[in-house]
Protein backbone atom coordinates (compact mmCIF):
# COMPACT_ATOMS: atom_id res chain seq x y z
CA UNK A 1 0.00 0.00 0.00
CA UNK A 2 1.17 3.50 -0.81
CA UNK A 3 2.99 5.05 2.21
CA UNK A 4 1.09 8.30 1.80
CA UNK A 5 -2.27 6.47 1.90
CA UNK A 6 -1.16 4.53 4.99
CA UNK A 7 -0.33 7.78 6.78
CA UNK A 8 -3.72 9.25 5.92
CA UNK A 9 -5.55 6.16 7.18
CA UNK A 10 -3.51 6.09 10.38
CA UNK A 11 -4.31 9.76 11.06
CA UNK A 12 -8.02 9.16 10.47
CA UNK A 13 -8.03 6.16 12.82
CA UNK A 14 -6.26 8.16 15.52
CA UNK A 15 -8.73 11.02 15.19
CA UNK A 16 -11.68 8.63 15.41
CA UNK A 17 -10.24 6.92 18.50
CA UNK A 18 -9.59 10.22 20.34
CA UNK A 19 -13.09 11.48 19.46
CA UNK A 20 -14.66 8.26 20.78
CA UNK A 21 -12.74 8.52 24.08
CA UNK A 22 -13.78 12.16 24.58
CA UNK A 23 -17.42 11.29 23.86
CA UNK A 24 -17.41 8.48 26.44
CA UNK A 25 -15.87 10.80 29.07
CA UNK A 26 -18.50 13.47 28.32
CA UNK A 27 -21.37 10.97 28.70
CA UNK A 28 -20.03 9.72 32.05
CA UNK A 29 -19.63 13.27 33.41
CA UNK A 30 -23.10 14.32 32.28
CA UNK A 31 -24.66 11.21 33.81
CA UNK A 32 -23.00 11.93 37.17
CA UNK A 33 -24.16 15.53 37.07
CA UNK A 34 -27.75 14.51 36.34
CA UNK A 35 -27.74 12.02 39.23
CA UNK A 36 -26.54 14.77 41.56
CA UNK A 37 -29.31 17.10 40.44
CA UNK A 38 -31.97 14.40 40.83
CA UNK A 39 -30.77 13.48 44.34
CA UNK A 40 -30.75 17.16 45.31
CA UNK A 41 -34.25 17.61 43.91
CA UNK A 42 -35.58 14.66 45.88
CA UNK A 43 -34.13 16.00 49.13
CA UNK A 44 -35.69 19.41 48.54
CA UNK A 45 -39.11 18.13 47.47
CA UNK A 46 -39.66 16.29 50.72
CA UNK A 47 -39.23 19.49 52.73
CA UNK A 48 -41.63 21.75 50.84
CA UNK A 49 -45.09 22.37 52.25
CA UNK A 50 -48.05 21.70 49.97
CA UNK A 51 -48.53 24.75 47.74
CA UNK A 52 -45.85 26.79 49.46
CA UNK A 53 -44.37 29.49 47.25
CA UNK A 54 -40.64 29.91 46.73
CA UNK A 55 -38.48 33.00 46.93
CA UNK A 56 -37.21 34.29 43.61
CA UNK A 57 -34.28 36.37 42.57
CA UNK A 58 -32.97 37.49 39.22
CA UNK A 59 -29.22 36.82 39.65
CA UNK A 60 -26.63 39.20 38.33
CA UNK A 61 -24.02 37.84 35.95
CA UNK A 62 -20.93 39.55 37.32
CA UNK A 63 -18.62 36.83 38.62
CA UNK A 64 -16.84 39.32 40.85
CA UNK A 65 -19.88 39.22 43.15
CA UNK A 66 -19.00 35.68 44.23
CA UNK A 67 -15.77 36.62 45.96
CA UNK A 68 -16.93 37.38 49.50
CA UNK A 69 -14.42 38.53 52.06
CA UNK A 70 -14.35 36.55 55.28
CA UNK A 71 -13.84 39.88 57.07
CA UNK A 72 -17.42 40.97 56.33
CA UNK A 73 -18.78 42.86 59.32
CA UNK A 74 -20.86 40.89 61.85
CA UNK A 75 -21.09 40.23 65.57
CA UNK A 76 -17.58 39.15 66.65
CA UNK A 77 -19.10 37.05 69.45
CA UNK A 78 -20.61 34.58 66.99
CA UNK A 79 -19.17 31.10 67.34
CA UNK A 80 -17.21 29.62 64.47
CA UNK A 81 -18.13 25.94 64.49
CA UNK A 82 -16.08 23.28 62.74
CA UNK A 83 -17.44 21.31 59.81
CA UNK A 84 -16.44 18.12 61.63
CA UNK A 85 -18.79 18.96 64.52
CA UNK A 86 -21.62 19.84 62.12
CA UNK A 87 -21.19 16.60 60.17
CA UNK A 88 -21.43 14.66 63.44
CA UNK A 89 -24.42 16.71 64.69
CA UNK A 90 -26.39 16.26 61.45
CA UNK A 91 -25.29 12.68 60.75
CA UNK A 92 -23.52 13.94 57.65
CA UNK A 93 -26.48 16.17 56.75
CA UNK A 94 -28.91 13.27 56.74
CA UNK A 95 -32.21 13.81 54.85
CA UNK A 96 -33.94 12.39 57.95
CA UNK A 97 -33.03 15.56 59.87
CA UNK A 98 -34.32 18.07 57.31
CA UNK A 99 -36.89 20.42 58.87
CA UNK A 100 -37.12 23.12 56.23
CA UNK A 101 -35.99 24.60 52.97
CA UNK A 102 -34.55 28.11 53.13
CA UNK A 103 -34.26 30.39 50.14
CA UNK A 104 -30.87 28.94 49.15
CA UNK A 105 -30.30 25.88 51.30
CA UNK A 106 -31.75 23.03 53.34
CA UNK A 107 -32.28 23.35 57.11
CA UNK A 108 -31.50 20.50 59.52
CA UNK A 109 -32.26 19.92 63.18
CA UNK A 110 -29.09 19.09 65.11
CA UNK A 111 -27.61 18.85 68.59
CA UNK A 112 -24.17 20.41 69.02
CA UNK A 113 -21.43 19.01 71.25
CA UNK A 114 -22.55 21.48 73.93
CA UNK A 115 -25.97 19.80 74.00
CA UNK A 116 -27.75 22.78 72.42
CA UNK A 117 -30.45 21.88 69.90
CA UNK A 118 -30.11 24.13 66.86
CA UNK A 119 -31.30 24.64 63.29
CA UNK A 120 -28.46 24.28 60.75
CA UNK A 121 -28.79 25.78 57.28
CA UNK A 122 -26.29 24.46 54.75
CA UNK A 123 -26.21 26.89 51.86
CA UNK A 124 -26.17 25.72 48.27
CA UNK A 125 -22.72 25.02 46.92
CA UNK A 126 -23.38 27.41 44.02
CA UNK A 127 -20.76 30.11 44.52
CA UNK A 128 -22.94 33.09 43.66
CA UNK A 129 -26.09 32.16 45.59
CA UNK A 130 -24.41 30.52 48.57
CA UNK A 131 -21.80 33.22 49.20
CA UNK A 132 -24.31 36.02 48.72
CA UNK A 133 -26.79 34.59 51.23
CA UNK A 134 -24.02 33.89 53.72
CA UNK A 135 -22.87 37.47 53.58
CA UNK A 136 -26.43 38.84 53.68
CA UNK A 137 -27.30 36.87 56.82
CA UNK A 138 -24.02 37.58 58.58
CA UNK A 139 -24.20 41.32 57.90
CA UNK A 140 -27.85 41.67 58.93
CA UNK A 141 -29.04 38.90 61.23
CA UNK A 142 -25.53 38.60 62.70
CA UNK A 143 -25.72 42.17 64.02
CA UNK A 144 -29.23 42.43 65.49
CA UNK A 145 -30.87 41.08 68.63
CA UNK A 146 -34.65 41.24 69.16
CA UNK A 147 -37.19 38.82 70.69
CA UNK A 148 -39.17 38.69 67.43
CA UNK A 149 -36.17 37.98 65.20
CA UNK A 150 -34.55 34.54 65.09
CA UNK A 151 -31.08 34.43 66.67
CA UNK A 152 -28.02 33.33 64.74
CA UNK A 153 -25.72 31.37 67.07
CA UNK A 154 -22.76 30.54 64.87
CA UNK A 155 -21.40 29.74 61.45
CA UNK A 156 -18.98 27.59 59.50
CA UNK A 157 -17.00 28.78 56.50
CA UNK A 158 -14.57 26.28 55.03
CA UNK A 159 -13.64 25.75 51.40
CA UNK A 160 -16.81 26.15 49.35
CA UNK A 161 -19.07 25.27 52.29
CA UNK A 162 -21.09 27.98 54.04
CA UNK A 163 -23.25 26.95 57.01
CA UNK A 164 -25.36 29.07 59.37
CA UNK A 165 -26.49 27.93 62.83
CA UNK A 166 -29.65 29.35 64.42
CA UNK A 167 -31.66 28.88 67.58
CA UNK A 168 -34.20 26.07 67.18
CA UNK A 169 -37.80 27.38 67.23
CA UNK A 170 -40.09 24.66 68.58
CA UNK A 171 -43.32 24.89 66.60
CA UNK A 172 -42.05 25.35 63.08
CA UNK A 173 -43.25 27.98 60.63
CA UNK A 174 -46.53 29.88 60.36
CA UNK A 175 -47.33 28.44 56.92
CA UNK A 176 -47.61 24.98 58.46
CA UNK A 177 -49.99 26.20 61.15
CA UNK A 178 -52.23 28.03 58.69
CA UNK A 179 -52.53 25.26 56.11
CA UNK A 180 -51.32 21.91 57.46
CA UNK A 181 -53.73 20.50 60.05
CA UNK A 182 -52.16 17.03 60.01
CA UNK A 183 -50.26 15.74 62.99
CA UNK A 184 -46.63 16.75 62.98
CA UNK A 185 -44.33 13.86 63.76
CA UNK A 186 -40.83 13.10 64.85
CA UNK A 187 -39.97 12.91 61.14
CA UNK A 188 -40.29 16.68 60.67
CA UNK A 189 -38.13 17.49 63.67
CA UNK A 190 -40.83 19.17 65.73
CA UNK A 191 -42.94 18.12 68.70
CA UNK A 192 -45.54 15.43 68.05
CA UNK A 193 -48.92 17.17 68.16
CA UNK A 194 -51.98 17.98 66.10
CA UNK A 195 -51.91 21.47 64.61
CA UNK A 196 -55.22 22.93 65.75
CA UNK A 197 -56.57 26.04 63.99
CA UNK A 198 -55.01 29.20 65.38
CA UNK A 199 -57.44 31.33 67.40
CA UNK A 200 -58.14 34.99 66.59
CA UNK A 201 -56.12 36.17 69.62
CA UNK A 202 -53.15 33.98 68.68
CA UNK A 203 -53.19 35.30 65.12
CA UNK A 204 -53.23 38.92 66.31
CA UNK A 205 -50.36 38.08 68.68
CA UNK A 206 -48.35 36.71 65.75
CA UNK A 207 -49.14 39.77 63.62
CA UNK A 208 -48.06 42.05 66.47
CA UNK A 209 -44.79 40.15 66.88
CA UNK A 210 -43.89 40.39 63.19
CA UNK A 211 -44.71 44.12 63.26
CA UNK A 212 -42.41 44.60 66.28
CA UNK A 213 -39.54 42.76 64.61
CA UNK A 214 -39.84 44.69 61.34
CA UNK A 215 -40.16 48.05 63.12
CA UNK A 216 -36.93 47.30 65.00
CA UNK A 217 -35.15 46.47 61.74
CA UNK A 218 -36.41 49.56 59.94
CA UNK A 219 -35.47 52.10 62.63
CA UNK A 220 -32.03 50.70 63.43
CA UNK A 221 -28.98 52.96 62.98
CA UNK A 222 -28.43 51.12 59.70
CA UNK A 223 -31.95 50.10 58.61
CA UNK A 224 -32.42 46.57 57.31
CA UNK A 225 -34.88 45.53 54.59
CA UNK A 226 -35.93 41.88 54.79
CA UNK A 227 -37.37 41.65 51.23
CA UNK A 228 -39.02 38.24 51.73
CA UNK A 229 -41.65 38.53 54.47
CA UNK A 230 -44.08 35.60 54.13
CA UNK A 231 -45.75 32.93 56.25
CA UNK A 232 -42.99 30.32 55.84
CA UNK A 233 -40.39 32.85 57.04
CA UNK A 234 -42.17 33.40 60.35
CA UNK A 235 -41.27 30.82 63.02
CA UNK A 236 -43.39 30.16 66.12
CA UNK A 237 -42.02 29.22 69.53
CA UNK A 238 -43.76 27.23 72.26
CA UNK A 239 -45.78 30.32 73.28
CA UNK A 240 -46.68 31.18 69.67
CA UNK A 241 -44.44 34.22 69.72
CA UNK A 242 -43.37 35.14 66.19
CA UNK A 243 -39.72 35.11 65.08
CA UNK A 244 -38.80 36.55 61.66
CA UNK A 245 -36.35 34.23 59.87
CA UNK A 246 -34.43 33.73 56.61
CA UNK A 247 -32.43 36.89 55.95
CA UNK A 248 -30.79 35.59 52.78
CA UNK A 249 -32.37 38.36 50.68
CA UNK A 250 -32.01 41.08 53.34
CA UNK A 251 -30.11 44.28 52.64
CA UNK A 252 -28.84 47.14 54.80
CA UNK A 253 -29.53 50.77 53.90
CA UNK A 254 -26.40 52.78 54.47
CA UNK A 255 -26.59 56.23 56.03
CA UNK A 256 -27.61 59.09 53.69
CA UNK A 257 -29.61 56.62 51.57
CA UNK A 258 -33.34 55.83 51.64
CA UNK A 259 -33.16 52.71 49.49
CA UNK A 260 -30.92 50.06 48.02
CA UNK A 261 -30.55 49.38 44.31
CA UNK A 262 -30.82 45.67 43.69
CA UNK A 263 -32.30 42.97 41.49
CA UNK A 264 -35.94 41.92 41.79
CA UNK A 265 -36.31 39.56 44.77
CA UNK A 266 -39.04 38.12 46.97
CA UNK A 267 -41.99 35.75 46.67
CA UNK A 268 -44.87 36.10 44.25
CA UNK A 269 -48.03 37.29 45.98
CA UNK A 270 -46.08 39.17 48.65
CA UNK A 271 -43.92 41.38 46.43
CA UNK A 272 -44.88 45.09 46.30
CA UNK A 273 -45.98 46.43 42.90
CA UNK A 274 -43.08 48.89 42.67
CA UNK A 275 -40.61 45.98 42.56
CA UNK A 276 -41.89 45.15 39.08
CA UNK A 277 -41.15 48.63 37.75
CA UNK A 278 -37.56 49.11 38.91
CA UNK A 279 -34.73 47.78 41.03
CA UNK A 280 -35.07 50.07 44.06
CA UNK A 281 -35.99 48.48 47.40
CA UNK A 282 -37.16 50.48 50.45
CA UNK A 283 -38.56 49.68 53.87
CA UNK A 284 -42.00 50.34 52.37
CA UNK A 285 -41.61 47.15 50.35
CA UNK A 286 -41.49 45.22 53.63
CA UNK A 287 -44.58 47.12 54.79
CA UNK A 288 -46.49 45.90 51.74
CA UNK A 289 -45.38 42.28 52.27
CA UNK A 290 -46.35 42.55 55.94
CA UNK A 291 -49.80 43.82 54.95
CA UNK A 292 -50.32 40.84 52.65
CA UNK A 293 -49.14 38.47 55.39
CA UNK A 294 -51.45 40.15 57.90
CA UNK A 295 -54.47 39.71 55.62
CA UNK A 296 -53.43 36.13 54.85
CA UNK A 297 -53.30 35.31 58.57
CA UNK A 298 -56.84 36.51 59.29
CA UNK A 299 -58.43 35.09 56.12
CA UNK A 300 -56.51 31.81 55.96
CA UNK A 301 -56.02 32.21 52.20
CA UNK A 302 -52.74 32.09 50.30
CA UNK A 303 -51.96 35.36 48.48
CA UNK A 304 -50.67 33.69 45.31
CA UNK A 305 -53.37 31.04 44.85
CA UNK A 306 -56.61 31.86 42.97
CA UNK A 307 -59.89 30.72 44.52
CA UNK A 308 -63.62 31.07 43.68
CA UNK A 309 -64.96 34.52 44.62
CA UNK A 310 -68.52 35.37 45.66
CA UNK A 311 -69.60 35.32 42.02
CA UNK A 312 -67.92 31.97 41.37
CA UNK A 313 -65.14 33.46 39.26
CA UNK A 314 -61.53 32.86 40.23
CA UNK A 315 -59.96 35.67 42.19
CA UNK A 316 -56.74 36.26 44.14
CA UNK A 317 -56.49 37.38 47.75
CA UNK A 318 -55.85 41.12 47.41
CA UNK A 319 -58.43 41.58 44.65
CA UNK A 320 -61.02 39.68 46.70
CA UNK A 321 -60.33 41.62 49.92
CA UNK A 322 -60.61 44.98 48.17
CA UNK A 323 -63.97 44.00 46.63
CA UNK A 324 -65.33 42.65 49.92
CA UNK A 325 -64.12 45.70 51.88
CA UNK A 326 -66.03 48.04 49.53
CA UNK A 327 -69.17 46.11 50.47
CA UNK A 328 -68.30 46.29 54.19
CA UNK A 329 -68.18 42.48 54.35
CA UNK A 330 -65.34 42.14 56.84
CA UNK A 331 -66.69 39.35 59.06
CA UNK A 332 -67.34 37.25 55.96
CA UNK A 333 -63.61 37.34 55.15
CA UNK A 334 -62.42 35.95 58.50
CA UNK A 335 -61.01 32.41 58.29
CA UNK A 336 -63.89 29.97 58.75
CA UNK A 337 -61.84 27.95 61.23
CA UNK A 338 -61.77 30.89 63.69
CA UNK A 339 -64.48 30.95 66.36
CA UNK A 340 -66.62 34.08 66.01
CA UNK A 341 -67.82 33.92 69.65
CA UNK A 342 -67.07 37.26 71.30
CA UNK A 343 -65.39 38.61 68.18
CA UNK A 344 -66.37 42.24 67.60
CA UNK A 345 -67.08 43.28 64.02
CA UNK A 346 -65.60 46.73 64.70
CA UNK A 347 -62.31 45.14 65.77
CA UNK A 348 -62.22 42.91 62.70
CA UNK A 349 -62.83 45.92 60.45
CA UNK A 350 -60.02 47.92 62.09
CA UNK A 351 -57.57 45.04 61.64
CA UNK A 352 -58.49 44.65 57.96
CA UNK A 353 -58.12 48.40 57.41
CA UNK A 354 -54.54 48.34 58.77
CA UNK A 355 -53.71 45.57 56.30
CA UNK A 356 -55.27 47.51 53.45
CA UNK A 357 -53.27 50.64 54.35
CA UNK A 358 -50.07 48.61 54.29
CA UNK A 359 -50.89 47.21 50.85
CA UNK A 360 -51.64 50.56 49.22
CA UNK A 361 -50.47 50.43 45.60
CA UNK A 362 -48.61 53.72 46.14
CA UNK A 363 -45.79 53.16 48.63
CA UNK A 364 -45.89 56.85 49.64
CA UNK A 365 -49.24 56.30 51.35
CA UNK A 366 -48.28 53.23 53.37
CA UNK A 367 -47.72 53.61 57.12
CA UNK A 368 -44.35 52.86 58.71
CA UNK A 369 -44.05 49.68 60.75
CA UNK A 370 -43.74 51.80 63.88
CA UNK A 371 -47.11 53.40 63.07
CA UNK A 372 -48.60 49.98 62.40
CA UNK A 373 -47.46 48.82 65.83
CA UNK A 374 -49.09 51.82 67.51
CA UNK A 375 -52.36 51.23 65.65
CA UNK A 376 -52.39 47.57 66.67
CA UNK A 377 -51.74 48.52 70.32
CA UNK A 378 -54.70 50.92 70.27
CA UNK A 379 -56.99 48.19 68.96
CA UNK A 380 -55.77 45.66 71.49
CA UNK A 381 -56.09 48.15 74.35
CA UNK A 382 -59.73 48.85 73.48
CA UNK A 383 -60.72 45.19 73.58
TrEMBL record:
Membrane topology note: Single-pass type I membrane protein
InterPro entries in the cross-refs: Kinase-like_dom_sf, LRR_Rcpt-Like_S/T_Kinase, Prot_kinase_dom, Protein_kinase_ATP_BS, Ser-Thr/Tyr_kinase_cat_dom, Ser/Thr_kinase_AS
SMART domains registered for this protein in UniProt: S_TKc
Cellular component terms (Gene Ontology): plasma membrane
SUPFAM superfamilies given in the database record: Protein kinase-like (PK-like)
Compartments, as annotated in UniProt: Cell membrane
Primary location class: membrane
Gene Ontology MF term list: ATP binding; protein serine/threonine kinase activity
Sequence positions that bind ATP: 122
Transmembrane annotation, as ranges: 6-29
Chain ranges of the Protein kinase domain: 93-380
GO biological process terms on file: defense response to oomycetes
Keywords carried by this UniProt record: ATP-binding, Cell membrane, Glycoprotein, Kinase, Membrane, Nucleotide-binding, Receptor, Serine/threonine-protein kinase, Signal, Transferase, Transmembrane, Transmembrane helix
Pfam families: PK_Tyr_Ser-Thr
CDD domains (alphabetical): STKc_IRAK (cd14066)
Family: Belongs to the protein kinase superfamily.
Protein name: Leucine-rich repeat receptor kinase EMS1
Biological source species: Olea europaea subsp. europaea
